[in-house]
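Let us work through a complete example step by step.
Step 1: write down the sequence.
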Amino acid sequence: MGPTRSLTSFVIEGDTGPDLTVLTEPAAEGAISVEIGWQGSWAHVAEAAEALRGRRVSGKAVLRVAR
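Step 2: predict the structure and record it as tokens.
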């Protein structure tokens, strides 16, 4: 059947500023990359979740949130 896979969600509480800086600076410089397999509006969260659950997305799903 293939290797075991999982879909994991999590919530980060507290001050994440310093941790995010450690990740965003190298990403902005092109030193690290993240595979994005799906992008869309927050209004399409159900579509994103279904694509992830159905293993139709390789990489991360990114939801755009309007200000």
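Step 3: interpret the result. DSSP finds two helices and two strands in the chain.
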